[in-house]
Amino acid sequence: MNVLNHSNRVDTPPRPPGRRRLIAGALIPALLVSGCASTGGYRQSYASSSQARLAQLSEAYNQTLAEGCVTGAAVGGLAGGLIGRDWKGAVAGLLAGAALGCAAGSYMGNLQNSYAREEDRLNAVIIDIRRDNQSLAELIPVAQRVVEDNKARVAELNKAIASGRMTRAQAAGQLADLDASRSQLQATLGSAKKRLAEQHAAIAMNTRNANPQLANIAHEELARKEQQVQALESELNTLTQLRSVDRVG
User: Start and end of every Glycine zipper 2TM domain (predicted)?
Assistant: First the structure.
């Protein structure tokens, strides 16, 4: 069975009031995790709003993966509701999602333990990749702005060095934000690459006998994530080059 219509959107039937409350309750823990993660970056002072936003999004993304026990249950409940089309499916999804987030073992092993049918496993992976893609799509433009901000700042610092208004050591001391942004992107990219490799394996394993349309959707979402991971890596490389090659570094 497919979870998507021809527009590649999740086809959500009208929900009875009880089911709406159940799924809303399932989503609350994920929202709480996101809210907690999103405030941490603002404890530090940043040179630009883009850098503060990058810290916020990076922390939220990495904490979402780390807090899989909570978010897995919420997403599992939503997926179960979509696939099962009734409140029992939502309950089963909550339990499966919690197992997916908390159980020891590999991503593949958790999928197999949580979903008996290949199609359900593939649906779960598609939902997982789409959530990742949404996070990365929000994060990449912010990373690009951070890179542009730092290019301009490094250029100004180099002018100050050339004119004798500042030493290289003084200029380098003003790039703590650049270093922080680079560390944030490194952590996020590492998490994204690790999960991408796991999703690659999961899709390869669960598309052998799957509905061809569903398999195509899985590969399309995976290809989109690959492109976004490459884009994020490009921004990280630019920041690294600014810090290590430029005179200021």
Answer: 68-109
